[in-house]
Structures are given as C-alpha cells and as structure tokens.
Design brief:
The chain has about 180 residues and is α/β, with parallel strands linked by helices. The protein is built from four helices and nine strands. Helix content is about 25%, strand content about 30%. Bound molecules: 1-O-pyrophosphono-5-O-phosphono-alpha-D-ribofuranose.
C-alpha cells in the first residue's frame, strides 16, 4: 500500500496528538452534559473514533450509522443513502457526530437535519479532517482536527474502493491508482 501513496499528510503520531487535543476540548465542553451519544458514521470513522473515545472523560454512549455518499468513486455522488440507522432514540439527547472527513458537507447536512427532526437536544460534529474547498453545502464542524486542501486522501479509515483504510497514517493517493 505504501507505494501507492504520493505524500504523507499526517503521520500516526500526528494523528494521536490531534486526537488527544480534540478529546480534551470536547471533554471540557461536555463535562456537565447528561450522557451524550458519540455517533460514528461508518465505516471511515472507526480508527479515529476508537482513539478519540479514549480521551473523552465523561460518560457517553457509542452508536453508529452507516451513511454513504461516495459509492466507489473518488468524488461524492451527492446521493446520501442511510444504509444503517442509529439503534436508539436521540430525543432530548446531546449527539456528537464523529467523522473521518467532511468534504462536500452533504452527508452531515442530511444526518444533522434528520437528528434535529427526531428531537435531538444538540448536535455537534468532530472530524479528523476537513476539506473546506470541497463544500457544496455550507457547513462548519465544531471540532476539526486538521484542514486539508482539495486532494484525495486515504488511510486511517479513509478508503479508495474500500482499500487503504488500514494504513496507520493519512496520505495522498497517487493519481495513477485511480486514473487507471
Ligand atoms: C465519506 C466520509 C464521510 C463522507 C464525507 O464516507 O467518511 O462520511 O464521505 O463526504 P461529504 O462531506 O462529501 O458528504 P463514505 O460515504 O465514502 O463512506 P465510508 O465512510 O464507508 O467510506
């Protein structure tokens, strides 16, 4: 896999440092909240969420939704599908959505609208990566780990055609891989 990477954007150590910082920020903000739900959007969230939750110092529940927008391509399809819904009611609950990346903003706009419609008390977003130049729908996550330019990245949960998620770092994929 390493040979398919043009440039490493975030090393594993840098990801850890960023995650710890986000963890303490969120822990300070939610110390008086009543058992928020940390809601991971599968599958990309898995490595980041599993690290982040270690640095959250308040009681919480973890939940997952599987919402897909990219299909198997390198661009968002704009067509947001809910493939697996959350298992519990969000009514009157504080929800922290955990994402690997925010790109067009369409996934989060759809999910946030749905959670508010279901009566969530508050909905905030923590994302490891933010790609603001990719936005189609205006959106600003509250907790951002690292801002990236408009490049296609893989690793630490992020995939190309379902591969590279297990790379321990975030890297830019060589164009030759997806322009074959
Ligand atoms: C990716 C990523 C975000 C979403 C961001 O998920 O994990 O959930 O796209 O894109 P957007 O801001 O343009 O909506 P994807 O649908 O590829 O599923 P995955 O997490 O299973 O890879």
């Amino acid at each position: 896999m390493n040979k398919d990477i043009k440039e490493v954007l975030l090393s594993h150590e840098e990801i850890l440092t960023i995650t710890k910082k986000l963890g303490s920020l969120i822990s300070a903000d939610y110390k008086n909240s009543s058992k928020p739900i940390l809601l991971g959007l599968l599958k990309g969230c898995v490595p980041f969420m599993s690290y982040l939750m270690n640095y959250l110092t308040f009681p919480l529940e973890i939940e997952f939704m599987d919402v897909s927008s990219y299909g198997n391509d390198i661009k968002s399809s704009g067509d947001v599908k809910i493939k697996k819904d959350i298992d519990v009611s969000v009514f009157n609950r504080d929800v922290i959505i955990c994402e690997d990346i925010v790109d067009t903003g369409q996934t989060l706009n759809t999910v946030i609208r749905l959670l508010h419609h279901r009566g969530a008390r508050s909905v905030e977003v923590v994302t490891l990566l933010d790609k603001p130049d990719g936005r189609i729908t205006p959106f600003k996550p509250k907790y951002i780990g690292y801002v990236i330019p408009k490049v296609f990245v893989v690793g630490f949960g992020l995939d190309y055609q379902q591969y590279y998620r297990n790379l321990p770092y975030i890297g830019i994929l060589k164009e030759s891989i997806y322009k074959k």
